[in-house]
Amino acid sequence: MSEENRIELLRKILKIASVNDKESQVANIIQDFLGDQPNITFKRVQYAPGRENLIIDVNAPTTQKRVLGFNGHMDVVDPGDTDLWTYPPFAAKITKSRIYGRGTSDMKAGVAAMVSALKELLAEDFTFNGGLRLLLTVGEEIDNFGARQLADLGYAKPLTALIVGEPTNHTMWYAHKGIIDFTATAYGKSAHGAMPQLGINAIDHLFDFYAQAKKMMAPILATTDPALGHTTFNVTLINGGNQINSIPQAARLRGNIRTVTAVSNQTIQATLQQAAAVTNKLPKHKIDLSIDSSIDAIASDAHSEIIEIAQAAARANDWPEVVTTGAPTTDASLFKSKCPNLPFVILGPGNNTAHQVDEYVTLEDFNKITAIYKNIIQQYLS
């Protein structure tokens, strides 16, 4: 199969505006691209109408002792103001050895590379000494909906190693941070701004919670993880009140915490709950706290077999062998939650333009990663 065929696959799936939807259309293109093969099976797991996870199996993975998994997600984030883009975000424009569009780096280039690697090996009649499973998911950009679903259904259990094709900017990761999103809502009593004594200022009480949470989170933020550094804690959204001359009846903030393996998500959630409980003991305070999302930080052995194989494949294709850690979460966290001993490596084409205007991937990186994936499969399943 030529490089032109790979690029055409990538362009086709980039043209699907799978912004938290339409992943089934991406899956259709991928399944048509691979076609009917004697040793390959396809399964769809629906999350919602028009939103199907795609599982691609080679050589009956559930019957094998050695099974290599690949994971990628088929959704993308919203492109934002399309007038700011040099080229339309779903046109898959190629210019100056780059392909531009929403999802090029994050992460349709990674998906197209693993699918292309599989098709090329099948065309070359490679003998798979073990099983291969591709887990292509929906809804990763919102709350890893598809990975949660597939993990709960046991689709990661046969895997003995996992490659996640997220963009790693010429490195590979053996660990990455987790995430906690939370919402705190303060309830008060409205009153005329000239008579504040008749009301209860919800914004003031929300700030009391924030101060208490920062105080109680301080020891956690000071804890150093040898691989991932420090937990970070940020309030990223806040709103309250409805008129300048009225005491606000309600106020809300949302926070984003990036977690490390040294402090569990459960410990942090308990700390936030305790901060709310302490605040609610103050006169007339009422704070409701909800945990909106929680995904654990994960780490693997930096010298595992799969990472050493990935490094060898990188060397063979003039790609850096740098093994490091990342901050963004991936579907791997959900699969690791059900298979805690699963070794993994995050390795994919792409750069720091993910989620930005004029997101792109270079054709050179896309083709090199495709070759690296082929080499990894050949070495792991030879």
Automatic annotation (TrEMBL):
One of its GO terms (molecular function) is succinyl-diaminopimelate desuccinylase activity. PANTHER family: ACETYLORNITHINE DEACETYLASE, PEPTIDASE M20 DIMERISATION DOMAIN-CONTAINING PROTEIN. The keyword Membrane does not apply. Its EC number is 3.5.1.18. Keywords: Amino-acid biosynthesis, Cobalt, Diaminopimelate biosynthesis, Hydrolase, Lysine biosynthesis, Metal-binding, Zinc. Its cofactor is Co(2+); Zn(2+). InterPro entries: ArgE/DapE, ArgE/DapE_CS, Bact_exopeptidase_dim_dom, Peptidase_M20, Peptidase_M20_dimer, Peptidase_M20A. It comes from the Bacteria. Pathway: Amino-acid biosynthesis; L-lysine biosynthesis via DAP pathway; LL-2,6-diaminopimelate from (S)-tetrahydrodipicolinate (succinylase route): step 3/3. The lineage of its organism: Bacteria, Bacillati, Bacillota, Bacilli, Lactobacillales. This is Probable succinyl-diaminopimelate desuccinylase. Belongs to the peptidase M20A family. SUPFAM superfamilies: Bacterial exopeptidase dimerisation domain, Zn-dependent exopeptidases. Residues 174-277 form the Peptidase M20 dimerisation domain. GO terms for biological process: diaminopimelate biosynthetic process; lysine biosynthetic process via diaminopimelate. It catalyses: N-succinyl-(2S,6S)-2,6-diaminopimelate + H2O = (2S,6S)-2,6-diaminopimelate + succinate. The keyword Hydrolase applies. It is an enzyme of class 3 (hydrolase).
